[in-house]
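Appendix B, example 12.
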Amino acid sequence: MPSRRTLDRIYAGLAKTSQYVAFTALLAMTLVMVAEVLMRYFVGEPLGWNISLIEKVLLPGLVFLGLPWAYSVGAHVSAELVYDRLPHGIQRVLDWVARTLLVVCAVVLAYAGALVAVEDFMLGSAPPPLSSQIPVDTWTWRSFLPIGAGLMLMLVLIDTVRTGSGRRSDS
């Protein structure tokens, strides 16, 4: 079993990578939309492919590849007002229930997303030629869900081993 220090480094590296990917996707969406406004209103020639790029690549990249970072910083819905007032024993049980649900959901998302991405890869699914869609095979952006869910699953499992309790550690 890896040492706590090794797990901490892996955890931090995955979370930081996810953060950079999410921020890059957000920055790219902003730049593409600014370029679209400039092209549409000042040049009179809209880009045409901008919506496809944002909805098929950048937004799924932001959401799904940002999952590990969101988990690592606790950017999820919680009821600390209620939770903090519960006895320690109930908190531990709730922590393990939440951790179990996270693992189950991450596994289901990774599996279902992988099935779709593999199917698209096997079928050679791609947008039609000369369409306003960006010419990227659909399996590439469909793989964001299983990758993001798989990485979040890794963080959840590392967190479980590192903390020894169900409670997410702050890294």
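The chain has seven helices and no strands. Residues 4-163 form one domain.
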